[in-house]
Design a protein that fits this description.
The chain is α+β, with helices and mostly antiparallel strands. It is built from six helices and seven strands; from the N terminus they run ααααβββββββαα. About 30% of the residues are buried. The structure holds zinc ion.
Length: about 220
């Protein structure tokens, strides 16, 4: 998940340039078919384009069942990428991987790696929050979700299990990243009309940022 629109606008000019530089729609979509095993063989910690098949494939590969022993290092790479792109959460399908894990910046716990997560309970109360996603920079959509969630997950050692309630932006981020692991995207949660409006707003944001980036050099 990415930070809100407001947060991005108060960042410095370098940040603006960085956000503008990453426009997935300037890249052509991959037409090759990729098998599930490919998603775990090559670990390249970079965002894949929005049409990459890993994004719509459930990330069911157990991170601790294979030969991967350097999860701490991989987690660090993902957290670095997440912060670099101004995100607060990043799931493995977003870098073209099918491991059942994601990273997020929790408001109290700080940066955490979340392995084999489960959501065991949802609050009845729901809340509308504007969400963004690192796979779709500057696309913001208001989405209704449960306000609190009780979650379970493993840490990078594969044995320590955490069980806790999350609320606010933490609950929101956890749910967003958890859905990435099911092969679902936040934009599928709203109507076509709402989505079209969000994409139009996004175009305007790109233009606004372009002006802000160009200005200091003019
Ligand atoms: Zn996302």
């Amino acid at each position: 998940m990415s930070k809100s629109e407001e947060t991005i606008f108060i960042e410095n000019e370098d940040t603006h340039a960085k956000v503008k530089l990453y426009n997935p729609y300037e890249k052509s979509a991959s037409t090759e078919s990729i098998s599930l095993t490919d998603f775990v063989e090559d670990w390249v910690c970079e965002l894949v384009e929005p049409k990459h098949p890993a994004l719509t494939t459930p990330a069911t590969v157990d991170p601790f069942a294979g030969g991967v022993s350097d999860w701490e290092d991989k987690e660090k790479q993902m957290l670095d990428l997440m912060h670099d792109k101004l995100g607060i959460g990043l799931a493995s399908p977003q870098i073209g991987s099918s491991y059942n894990m994601f990273v997020m910046n929790h408001t109290v716990l700080g940066d955490i790696g979340v392995y084999k997560p489960e959501i065991v309970e949802f609050s009845e109360e729901t809340v509308v929050i504007e969400e963004g996603c690192l796979t779709f920079p500057l696309l913001y959509i208001h989405i209704t979700r449960p306000e609190k969630v009780k979650v379970k997950y493993f840490k990078s050692d594969g044995t320590t299990q955490v069980e806790t309630w999350m609320d606010g932006i933490d609950a929101r981020c956890f749910q967003h990243e958890f859905e990435h692991l099911q092969g679902e995207l936040f934009l599928d949660k709203v109507s076509d009309m709402k989505l079209q409006r969000a994409f139009k707003k996004r175009e305007k944001l790109f233009k606004k940022l372009e002006k802000k980036v160009v200005k200091p050099n003019a």
